[in-house]
Amino acid sequence: MKILITSLAVLTLSFTTLPAKDSTFTSVIIPDGGSSLQIDLSARQWIKITNFTQNSVSNATPMPAGVAVFKGTAALWVLFATDPQTHAAHEDVFVGGPATVVVAPPEKGGAIVFLTYERGSD
Q1: Please, what are the averages of pLDDT over each run of 10 residues along the chain (122 residues)?
Q2: Which domains does the chain have, with CATH numbers?
Q3: Which one of 34, 53, 55, 89 has the largest count of C-beta atoms within 10 Å of its C-beta?
């Protein structure tokens, strides 16, 4: 009986960390010249992008970084990075799976990209 209660207690406590991992915020910095970030979403998963900015590393203005969503072979650009020194209205972007989200830094470099997103499941 003691072994059964101990086993149930360990099993119950091990499942308590699962909901804590769901719907947490993550921030990613893509350095100048860094590679794209790919986030794969399976069915019943979602992502909410709350912040997407880029800082220029030189005096020249780089091309904007972008977020593309792939569903199968079709792709759609859904968001472009803003300059944190300019105040622009920002709406959160929601993407539901199954999909692949690709965060592409400027093609020729010249900027550091910062992304904050929340990932969860239904």
Answers
A1: 55 49 83 92 93 84 88 90 73 92 88 92 85
A2: 23-121 (2.60.120.340)
A3: 53
